[in-house]
Amino acid sequence: MNWIGLSTIFRREVKRTMRVPTQTLIAPTISSALFIFIFGTVIGSRISEFAGVPYISFVFPGVLLMTVINAAYASASSALYFMRFSRSIEEMLITPFSYFEMLLGLVGSAVVRTVLVAGLTLLVGVLFGAVRLVDPLGFFFYITAISAIFAMLGIIVALWAESFEQLQVLNTFIITPLTYLGGIFYSVTFLPPLAATITHLNPFFYFANAVRYSMIGYSEANLWLGFVVISGLTLGLAILVISLFRRGWKIRG
Q1: Residue 69 lies in a domain
Q2: Which domain holds residue 148?
Q3: Cα 2 off chain centre by
């Protein structure tokens, strides 16, 4: 394992994050605070307790998940795209990195940024009295795995994109709609049967359910099925990204 190379990637990405803290840390934290205030405080004041907890505690895991998804995707996609744009990706290709180490460095650095954003979001949640954590280890696992999933999706889009505008295609047309339709701000029990069935086909529903269960202990889906979905996507995307690196797709020639 090339520990020196990996630590260099981590340090570079942390410095890049800290170089523009308003964009990478403060902006998502403010957005989270607004979502918590609107959905948790304003709307929550009109809703009685749900699943044995205040509505603000029920909706907070969804707000946190949305922040995690956006941070992981933005970090990995922008990092790799700029490496392609500046041709600094060629420096990584000639270093003694395996393709797995390249994946680990890019995804790991995105997870570092995501953890920072998640920590600030948790702090905001504490200020609103919304944070509960019944399974800290499960929470850490799900946040890390979901961050890795969207970091790898960001890598794939960054390899494909030929302009800054194309970097947002997946986020605009797939990630955002599926996030809002995945039960992050509502319970699937509120939906009519057909809509509930369709929601169960949405992988984002299992992301939200897993994070919610680790925080408040309430689940609306089979937890083992959610674990399989999350683990399967993590492994499948890792294999796909390593395969694309090996082929040199959009990074060689």
Answers
A1: yes
A2: 3-247
A3: 26
pLDDT interval class at 253 (50, 70, 90): low
3-class SS of residue 250: coil
Let me know the angle formed at the C-alpha of 177 by 176 and 182, rounded to the nearest 5 degrees. Answer: 100
Q: Is the dihedral of CA 213, 70, 241, 198 positive or negative?
A: positive
Residue at 253 is within a domain: no
Nearest to 67 by CA among 167, 189, 207: 207
Is residue 111 included in any domain, yes or no? yes
Residue 13 lies in a domain: yes
Across residues 145-158, what is the average pLDDT?
97
Query: Could you tell me the pTM of the whole model?
Result: 0.94
Q: Are 113 and 69 in contact (CB under 8 A)?
A: no
> Is residue 62 within 8 Å of 38, Cβ to Cβ?
no
Tokens of 185: 């701000």
3-state secondary structure 61-106: HHHHHHHHHHHHHHHHHHHHHHHHHHCCHHHHHHCCCCHHHHHHHH
Longest dimension (CA), the chain: 60
Write the pLDDT tens digit of every residue in 180-209. 999 888 899 889 999 999 999 999 999 999
212 contact partners, CB below 8 Å, separation of at least 6? 58, 61, 62, 218, 219
Give the number of domains in the chain. 1
Q: Pick left, alpha or beta for residue 217 (phi over 0 → left; psi -120 to 50 → alpha; otherwise beta).
A: left
d(C-alpha 193, C-alpha 106), whole Å: 41
Contacts of 164 (CB under 8 A, 6+ apart): 81
Residue 219 burial (CB count, 10 A): 14
